[in-house]
Inverse folding.
């Protein structure tokens, strides 16, 4: 079983996975710029976070008035939530 270790100088946590450097999200292609709409899954993949985290951020932006959400209905199943910047 892998154990979490931390070093005082780097303050990084190792759980057996390679360390991932944070991206500069201001220049990320996952931003909601322009008229295009994106799903939470598309944003998550572009930015490098989980789909659930992306959806939480997007819903926060909707509540704050920084983004709009549109439901796109397909054949069957749940509608797809598509987000765009206001």
């Amino acid at each position: 079983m892998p154990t979490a270790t931390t070093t005082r100088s780097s303050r990084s946590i190792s759980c057996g996975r390679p360390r991932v450097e944070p991206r500069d999200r201001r220049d990320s292609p996952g931003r909601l710029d322009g008229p295009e709409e994106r799903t939470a899954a598309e944003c998550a993949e572009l930015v490098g976070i989980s789909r659930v985290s992306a959806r939480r951020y997007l819903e926060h932006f909707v509540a704050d008035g920084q983004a709009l959400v549109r439901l796109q209905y397909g054949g069957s199943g749940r509608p797809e939530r598509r987000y765009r910047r206001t």
